[in-house]
UniProtKB/TrEMBL annotation:
Organism: Funiculus sociatus GB2-A5
Record's protein name: AAA family ATPase
A Pfam family matched in the record: Spore_III_AA
Top-level taxon: Bacteria
Lineage of the species this protein comes from: Bacteria, Bacillati, Cyanobacteriota, Cyanophyceae, Coleofasciculales
Gene3D superfamilies hit by this protein: P-loop containing nucleotide triphosphate hydrolases, R3H-like domain
Keywords: ATP-binding, Nucleotide-binding
Length: 617
């Protein structure tokens, strides 16, 4: 990089007792500013430190000496030195007299925009964000020169404080062929912006420090006329801009929107949400966190939408190495850690407020079942996949660590009986500790997803879902965010009648698992099928606590009666059974329990003697 600062012209403004220590200072090339306050010691500020220049406080005569050699102070209390980029700012007392000066060194740094040169050449509007002193104006000046000299564009700079092109009628050479329009008073900047477009036919408008609502509106007007905008605004991150009602229009503006019932249900949100009001004025935003580290948002519209919906963006992070090379990385958001419920012995607690990013194979945009590779070994068939030895009765959920020992040992046909037995025993031992492996979230699901599985419920009772997950201690977390979901669990009628749900799931490569009814048994079977635990030929022992709402003795007794009837009479003997009369609420629980065994049941009789009849398969 080539740096031009004309430092001596600024030092000539200072009194000799302050100028001489600076001229002899070894780090004067790194000087940032000189501060002179009446009655206080003069101070020189460098990039990493500050030093006093004299042990004698600043007098009024010294202040007047500087003021006489500086140009006129405008309405923003700023002045400059002609044909330089230095800025002198004044502090006044209540009567308007100057009692303090800040003499800031202005430097033209050629080559400073190497990190975003590709973005400048796209022709899209760019907004530069950052704290004061991070180099926004320096970058703006270099962008104007590159656009005018190297890309041969008509560039007009709106220079409100003469900070971009320097003081005086002739602009500083650092802006190249770009033209500069001065502003009489800071409050007229928005008018000059419109005037520049109407009178001088620019292709690019460069603006420093957009700070008022009128200036934000003028910027939108210019952008809608097809002119490229390059501007700066104060604020560390773009989130600060969204929360700023004065400047939020630069990124599209924010408004409250009332959603319809169907859309609110699909999003899993409240009916009143915040959304972007209009297309952003600036298509690209650059956060200048440090001089050599910038964060780039290539699509401001998408980034604002994600922030308003509670998703963390993953922007580019561009840095410059010591060798001068630009490196581009991605700032990935941290995935949320599922909370454990103390009431379930360390199992996963279901939560509807747990957004996250897709994990496992979902991140690649593909979710396909793993192919089975049959191998034969001494007359025995083994179905080996990349995740598990798929035997539901001995290895629920699958076990990946043991199968690596077998496949890495070479051809399966060459293993002897002892080797096979040892490996199988090892995998079997590991399967007994499956719940411990799942508890740290480091296991893989049937399609390669990281457990716990992120499930997006649609039209399913959240109370029943929570109950099933809690009682069975399943590694499942409910999510409101379709983007973070590994699967959608929905009613069959909803899937059939709502093509929008199918379209969104297809676009995001999320499989839909439909159930016929909103019952505990259907939900249980669907979740176990998602986790590759469901074996239709071997129904699981029913957990009675799944089917009861209050857990009182009458409900448990009625459910136990139905369970014994099914397991001891209907299934083994193939005979129908009639149960004792129960209330409608309890009969509904018994119906769901019978459905768990994949049997049919009917209610018959008149109240209060209405009762359940269970039929064999």
């Amino acid at each position: 990089m080539q740096i031009t600062d004309d430092l001596q012209k600024l030092l000539d403004v200072l009194p000799s007792e302050i100028r001489q220590p600076l001229e002899q200072h070894p780090d004067k090339d790194r000087l940032v500013e000189v501060v002179m306050d009446l009655g206080r010691l003069p101070e020189a500020r460098f990039a990493t430190q500050a030093e006093y220049l004299s042990q004698i406080p600043v007098s009024r005569e010294q202040l007047n000496y500087c003021i006489e050699r500086v140009g006129h102070f405008g309405g923003d209390n700023r002045a400059g030195l002609e044909r330089t980029l230095h800025r002198i700012s004044a502090i006044r007392n209540r009567s308007g007299e100057i009692i303090g000066l800040t003499l800031r060194v202005g430097r033209a740094v050629f080559g400073t925009i190497g990190m975003i040169r590709d973005l400048v050449e796209t022709g899209q509007s760019i907004l530069m964000l950052g704290r004061p002193g991070v180099g926004k104006t320096t970058a703006l000046r270099e962008i104007a020169r590159v656009l005018a000299d190297e890309l041969q564009k008509r560039v007009v700079i709106i220079d409100t404080s003469n900070e971009i092109a320097g003081d005086g009628d002739v602009p500083h050479p650092a802006i190249g062929r770009a033209r500069r329009m001065q502003v009489a008073r800071p409050e007229l900047q928005h008018q000059v912006m419109i005037e520049a477009v109407e009178n001088h036919m620019p292709e690019v408008i460069v603006i420093d420090e957009i700070g008022t609502e009128l200036e934000a509106m003028a910027a939108r007007t210019i952008a809608e006329r097809g002119v490229q905008l390059v501007g700066t605004a104060h604020g560390n991150r773009i989130e600060n801009l969204i929360k700023n009602p004065t400047l939020s229009d630069l990124v599209g503006g924010i408004q409250a929107v009332t959603l319809g019932d169907e859309e609110a249900r699909r999003r899993g949100s409240q009916k009143t949400v915040l959304e972007r009001k209009a297309p952003p004025t600036f298509e690209i935003a650059v956060e200048m966190l440090e001089r050599q580290r910038w964060v780039v948002h290539e699509q401001v519209a998408d980034m604002v939408d994600n922030l308003l919906r509670g998703r963390q963006p993953n922007p580019q992070v561009r840095t410059i190495t010591d060798a001068g090379e630009v490196t581009i990385t991605r700032e990935l958001p941290q995935a949320p850690t599922p909370m454990r419920s103390p009431s379930t012995g360390g199992g996963y607690a279901a939560s509807l407020d747990t957004p996250g990013r897709p994990t496992g194979w979902r991140t690649s945009g593909q979710m396909m079942p793993l192919p089975s590779q049959p191998r034969s070994l001494r007359g025995q068939d083994l179905r080996v996949t990349s995740t598990a030895l798929n035997s539901p009765r001995t290895l629920p959920f699958g076990s990946s660590s043991g199968i690596r020992d077998v496949t890495n040992a070479g051809d399966l046909s060459e293993l002897g009986p002892r080797s096979l037995s040892n490996d199988f025993e090892q995998m079997l031992d590991q399967s007994w500790h499956q719940s411990e492996l799942l508890s740290d979230g480091s296991f893989a699901g049937p399609n390669g997803e990281d457990l716990p599985l992120q499930v997006y419920p649609y039209g399913i009772s959240s109370q029943q879902l929570d109950q099933v997950i809690r009682v069975l201690n399943l590694p499942v977390v409910l999510t409101k965010d379709m983007d973070s979901a590994d699967a959608v669990l929905a009613l069959r009628s909803h899937v059939k009648n709502h093509s929008k749900l199918r379209h969104i799931a297809k676009a995001r490569h999320v499989p839909i698992h439909a159930i016929k009814a909103n019952t505990v048994s259907q939900i249980t079977r669907a979740l176990r099928r998602l986790l590759d635990m469901d074996d239709p030929s071997n129904p699981d022992v029913a957990e009675l606590s799944l089917f009861t709402t209050t857990g009182n003795e009458d409900e448990i007794e009625a459910l136990e009666e139905a369970r014994l009837a099914v397991e001891q009479i209907v299934i083994p003997k193939g005979q129908p059974v009639e149960l004792l009369p129960r209330s409608a609420k309890v009969r509904k629980m018994q119906h769901e329990l019978v459905e768990h065994y994949r049997l049919k049941s009917d209610s018959f009789g008149e109240e209060p003697n209405r009762r359940l009849r269970i039929y064999p398969a």
